[in-house]
Every structure is written in C-alpha cells, then in structure tokens.
Amino acid sequence: MIEFEKGSTNVYADLGFPDADEMLRKAELVTEIGKIIKARRWTQQRATEVLGLSQPKLSELLRGRFRGVSEIKMLEYRARLGCDVKIVVSPPHLIGAPGQVALSI
After folding, report:
1. Pair 47, 18: CB distance under 8 Å
2. End-to-end alpha carbon distance in the chain
3. Which of the residues 3, 16, 53, 92 could staple to 57 if both were Cys, CB 3.0 to 4.6 A apart?
4. Contact status, residue 8 vs residue 21, Cβ threshold 8 Å
5. Whole-angstrom Cα distance, residue 80 to residue 83?
C-alpha cells in the first residue's frame, strides 16, 4: 500500500526550499504569463518580441526554470502583456509582527 502525506499549499516549502514563498510567487506569475500567451495564440517568437527576451529564455521560463529571473522582472513581463501591476506597501503592524508578501492575480 502506498502512503501519502498531505502537503501544504506550497510545494516548494514541502520540498524544503529556503526561498519557498518567493518560488511560489514566481511560479504563479509564470503560470499567468503562459496563460496570456496561450490565450492570445502567440508563438514563442511573437511573445519574445513583446516581452523583450530570447526564445530560449522564454522557453526555460515557461518550463518553470526561473531561478535566475527576479520577481520584479516577471512583473515587468506582465506589464508588457498589458496587465496593470500595483505594489502596495502598508504601514507597519502595531504589534511589531513581521509583514507578508502576497500576490493577488
């Protein structure tokens, strides 16, 4: 019998990556970038023209190999695809607890 362990909502945390939250946000951004390209029925060549990156780099990105790409760069790609990107920083919490970084797509 195969035993399963229920994971969290972040596979990167489950696998023990130290930067799991960032990796999850990047994965979510790449997923949305891929959806937009697919919905527009663009070739990778057309997408590279709009995004301003090489075809091999786009291919790697869409395959989930995005370690060398910053979150800010991915947000720029979203903007180039016509998405509005807003970054909102709230005042510090009164308790002094750490804040969070979240992505709403």
Report:
1. no
2. 39
3. 53
4. no
5. 7
CA distance 15 to 1: 23
69 Cα distance to chain centroid: 10
- Which parts of the chain fold into alpha helices (H)? 11-14, 20-39, 44-51, 55-62, 71-80
Task: Give the pLDDT band (50/70/90) at residue 77.
Answer: very high
Choose among 47, 45, 44, 31: nearest CA to 82. Answer: 47
Three-state SS at 104: coil
Which is nearest to 25 in space by CA: 82, 81, 87, 80?
87
What's the pLDDT tens digit per position in 36-75? 999 999 999 999 999 999 999 999 999 999 988 999 999 9
The alpha carbon of residue 91 and the mean position of all alpha carbons in its chain are separated, in whole angstroms, by 25
How would residue 88 be classed by pLDDT, with cut points 50, 70 and 90?
confident
